[in-house]
Description:
Elements lengths: L8 H9 L9 E2 L30 E7 L8 E8 L12 E7 L5 E10 L8 E5 L6 E6 L5 E5 L4 E5 L5 E5 L6 E8 L7 E7 L5 E5 L9 E5 L13 E7 L2 E2 L4 E2 L2 E6 L4 E5 L11 E3 L6 E3 L7 E6 L6 E6 L5 E5 L5 E5 L5 E6 L11 E4 L7 E6 L4 E6 L1
Amino acid sequence: MRFFNLLPAPVALGGLLAMSACGGSGAVPSSAGANNAFGAQSSLAPATDSTSILNKLKKDVVIGSTVDPRNGDQGPRDLSQVHLSFGVLKKGQLLVCNFADSTGTAGNGTTIELLNPTTGSSPTRFVQSAKIKGCSGGAVSHGDNVYGGGLSSGILEKFNQHAKAVKTYGSPIKEPVVDADAFCSLAYAPESIFEGDAKTGSIVKFAAGLYGLRKEEAVITGFDVGGSGWGALGPEGIQYNGTLINHGNKCNDTLYITDGVDNTLVAVTTVSNLLATGEIIVQPGGKTFKCKQKKFSCASLVYSGSPLNSPVALALLPNGNLVVANGAGGNTLVEISAGGTVLATKTLNSDTTQEVFGLLATGTSDANTALFYTDTKDNSVHELEQ
Length: 386
């Protein structure tokens, strides 16, 4: 029998409906270049907004420095946002991982900073811990627990709202490089944290709420990896779409992942249904997938190739479009629709050195969307505004 993590009926039904999106047995093919991730099944195709939001973001402002005020840690990597005011956390605050120490040595940073999302903000240390050495990824659950991953330590640490360490996650995690919270607001739906591993090429899932897995599982395996330090590549960008659809009776429940080695953007449908190790196996080259439980969850290629160039960060816009930050060829952002169409590119500066490792979109509509990004050149968070 297949269990559904105590999901309500609408979400379970969504898992069954995904069958036709996953194709037949064996690998699921997808064409390179602009590509609809859900094939010809119009009832399953994501709602696609052809409006480019990136083209509307004309103003670039500096929010504030990310340098730790006590030990000088620097090198901002990854961004997340606080959902509720609880403990030392305030709703709307940004959390930023520092990947380097005060000398700029990559992989030695051990701090997570808090910044108010307004210009002129100063960093406040949330936590410092050797367990998150090489802090490269952070996620905030909807209960405001903070998860910090250390690329150098090989550990993912859970902190409560008062910055106290409450749990350590190790194996199967080896080199956590990015974390994302997956929350659907339907009753009894599980909340999970998905962690990308730069050593194994896996996506590790574990429970963040009351329901779901009771141990960590590498539910997706096989992403290509390469490089180290700032140059580490693999499944580095993860974003979850938990938007309610079908008149609020179903959750979109799609996880988006970028692979910097193969220049791909991948969608995983009904991702909450993934329970066991290796349920989805990415085939060599990153464009096809073997899905062991195709009736419940599967992966598809959204887009591959140029203008993607070693993507290292990903943001999900309120309208469902995605923005990718390239890690090579200059600091360029690429906006892609959920259906696989490139809508815009934006070069942030003329530098050839990789500087953008974190992206975060905010807003509720096309008119008020903004995009935050980290900049390792000046160790700060910037905001692109309309």
